[in-house]
Amino acid sequence: xxxxxxxxxxxxxxxxxxxxxxxxxxxxxxxxxxxPYFEDKSIIVAALxxxxxxxxxxxxxxxxxxxxxxxYIPLDFKGLLKYLVLSYIIGFIYDYLIYKLNIFDNLDKYYxxxxxxxxxxxxxxxxxxxxxxxQKYIIPKL
Length: 142
Fold this sequence. Notes:
The structure is a single chain. This protein has six helices and no strands. It has one domain. It has helices spanning 3-25, 35-39, 43-69, 77-100, 108-114, 118-138. It is globular and about 40 Å long. It is mostly helical. Helices cover 75% and strands 0% of the residues.
């Protein structure tokens, strides 16, 4: 698997996911706490922030995975499990730092409601899994 394709796919998944989340925040009650975040920026700017945030977390993941497991991208199920555990840890730390350092404005209500760490880690894992599926199963058939 190509590392650069993997990074690009994660950016795109983060970008598109944020657009969907932006729309859902006004339609689904438990996501309403994200409305203040999305209100003060364009949908494209918010999505760019999401994509850049994912990429900024993917880079250390790739390097740590190579250091710890001797692969940048997992090629088997056992490797995938290790990768996802490491991804959760990195995603949790990133989300916690976003909260503590107040990197993005108007997320206080969201973090008060759901807490910092877990949901950011889950979003990171989602991006990784979707990107791996696209890279392994969809791109080769194009």
